[in-house]
Amino acid sequence: MKKMNDETYTISEFARRTGLTVRTLRFYEEMELLVPNKYNQAGYRLYGMDDLTTLQHIQTLKFIGYSLQEIQQLLKAEAPVPKSFESSLSLQHRLLTEKRIELERAIEAIERVQHLVKQGYKLDWSMISSFLLSIKHEEEHKAWIKEHFSEEMAAQMYDLTKEEWLQLDKEWMKLLSKIKALVQQKVSPESKEAKAVLTEIMELAFKYVDEEEFSKQLLEQQDSILKNMDDFRFPNVFTKEEEAFLKETVKAIEEE
Which of the 8 DSSP states describes residue 119? Predict the structure, then answer.
């Protein structure tokens, strides 16, 4: 009677039983990851239980994020759990943790854009791109704020609830739509409508922030901030025309 460990399979049978494609198995063979050493009478390679074990090792290492090249080196090592593998696990853990955080941010970004679309806001690609980038780099922005302002100020600006972020998003989109409309309608940046929108922007910027304390810290750190501004830029949702419009409005208010 043939023992289970003696069972062998052609490449098509092995592919069917393991859920892989013949193409994948051939690729693993080319990379010398999985090379069966048994043959049938016709000279075709046969896969056995040892090959299944090796395949399980490959799939396990792929599951925790190792590349095929890295797996190749690990499987060639003599020790069952080589020191190189043991020392690389902590690095792999860090990389996967970072990827998880990045995925969580991406999911949050999608949900926030979906919320705006459901609310009926018309978003162009520049708005979507800037919006998503601001979420993607949120931790970098927060770190920059912490470098120049207090921990408490950074918390006021960034440690908001999901509901607070969604509300902010909606209010920003309303203001952005107003600015775009003013620019498209060729309204003067010195008009009362333009000044009113700029006032709304400033109020929204300090909705969750102590404006007096922010201004105080800004004055204290202005030299350091100006020195580092060239190395850091917040995402900008405005076109050049809209930027110029707002600068003229700021100038008009300052001259009053």
Answer: T
Q: Which of 129, 109, 124 is nearest to 169 (CA)?
A: 109
* The residue to which tokens 């309303």 are assigned: 174
Helix ranges, the chain (H): 11-18, 22-30, 49-63, 68-76, 83-118, 125-136, 138-148, 151-158, 162-184, 192-205, 211-220, 222-228, 240-254
Using alpha carbons, list the distances in angstroms from residue 245 to 98, 123, 183: 40, 20, 7
For residue 207, report the phi and psi dihedrals to the nearest 5 degrees.
Answer: -60, -40
What's the whole-model pTM score? 0.61
SS3 111: helix
User: Selecting from 1.10.357.140, 3.80.30.20, 1.10.1660.10, 2.60.40.790, what CATH number does the domain 4-76 have?
Assistant: 1.10.1660.10
Residue 168 CA from chain centroid, whole number: 21
Print burial letters for 178-213: b (CB count within 10 Å at least 16), e (below 16): bbbebbeeebebeeeebbebbeebeeeeeeeeeeee
Q: Where in the chain is the domain with CATH 1.10.1660.10?
A: 4-76
* Phi, psi angle pair for 37, to nearest 5°: -115, 15
pLDDT digits (tens, 9 = 90+) for 70-126: 888 888 875 556 566 677 788 788 888 888 888 888 898 899 989 988 988 888 787
